[in-house]
Amino acid sequence: MNHTIEVQRLRQGNEKAFVEMYHYFNGKVFNFLVKKVRDAEAAKELTQQCFIRIYQYRESLSDEHPLEKQVFITAKSVLLNHLRMEDRKKERELKYTQEQFPEGASATAIATNSFETNDFLEKVVLHLSPIRKQVVLLKLHRGLSNKEIAEELSISVKTVENHITKAHHHLREIAASHFLLLLLLLRL
């Protein structure tokens, strides 16, 4: 079927066209989102939000762009909204933590928290490749900029950024697995 005709049918509110479009793109959108959020339940919810938004704004679909592109632009928009909400949630949690440990808080409690965080980071860094470990340590312990790290290791700034990004992803994966393990232990 012609792409333009399909978009026209969607814009006109043709339910059969919407159901066909949903079945065609649902799995692709879900896979895209689950890779980004790494949570199947959240990805399901975001996938549903994506298609709800497409249905709500179907009259604004364009004949000039492929339908797939428009679907994924909507999915990215839903994802960005989700990530912004998650960031706000983390900011509120951080504010709450700061309220629990004000400046005059027990130095022991703060030192213990800092020690545990540093201990965790040290364990995570052990699993990185030697060059990635070196980049992360220069960044965290010596506070060097990406340019300074690149000069010190004789690599490009882009390579430094790549190593930091991959180390960050690795850290998130490990943190997520530790968090899930903690949740399982708490339920026992």
Automatic annotation (TrEMBL):
Boundaries of every RNA polymerase sigma factor 70 region 4 type domain copy: 122-167
Any one Gene Ontology molecular-function term assigned to this protein's record: DNA binding
Keywords: Sigma factor, Transcription, Transcription regulation
Keyword DNA-binding: no
Highest taxon of source: Bacteria
InterPro entries: RNA_pol_sigma-70-like, RNA_pol_sigma-70_dom, RNA_pol_sigma70_r4_t2, RNA_pol_sigma_r2, RNA_pol_sigma_r3/r4-like, Tscrpt_reg_LuxR_C, WH-like_DNA-bd_sf
Pfam family, any one: Sigma70_r4_2
GO biological process: DNA-templated transcription initiation
Family assignment from sequence similarity: Belongs to the sigma-70 factor family. ECF subfamily.
Record-linked NCBIfam families: sigma70-ECF (TIGR02937)
Record protein name field: RNA polymerase sigma-70 factor (ECF subfamily)
Organism whose genome encodes this protein: Chitinophaga ginsengisoli
